[in-house]
């Protein structure tokens, strides 16, 4: 309980406890924000990796098709 003042003790107590609660929850909120940011960054990295792999597969398919056409026709393909 707070020291006796001109203000009602219950009001002083509630303000003090609210300030202590805010101060104590700050590290937990900061860590939660850090974890969410890290998870989001990691998911974006995985998304980019999947997109790059899909694009590489498309290029590989086109290259394979072109090479097969060259083998079958015996000519240069455009």
Task: Report a brief summary of the structure.
It holds the Pfam family RebB. By secondary structure, the protein is mainly α.
Task: Please characterize this protein's 3D structure.
- With 78 residues, this protein is mainly α.
- The longest helix is centred in the middle third of the chain and has 65 residues, at 9-73.
- It contains one helix and no strands.
- It is rod-shaped, with a radius of gyration of 32 Å.
Computed Rg? 32 Å
Number of strands: 0
Helix share bin: over 70%
Shape: rod-shaped
Query: How many strands, which pairing sense, and closed or not: the largest β-sheet?
Result: none
What's the average pLDDT?
84
Beta-strand proportion: under 5%
Low-confidence stretches: none
Number of separate helices: 1
Give the termini distance in whole angstroms: 86 Å
The class by helix and strand makeup works out as mainly alpha
Key attributes of the depicted protein:
78 residues; mainly alpha; 0% strand; rod-shaped; Killing_trait_RebB; RebB family R body protein
Topology:
Blueprint (H helix, E strand, L loop, with lengths): L8 H65 L5
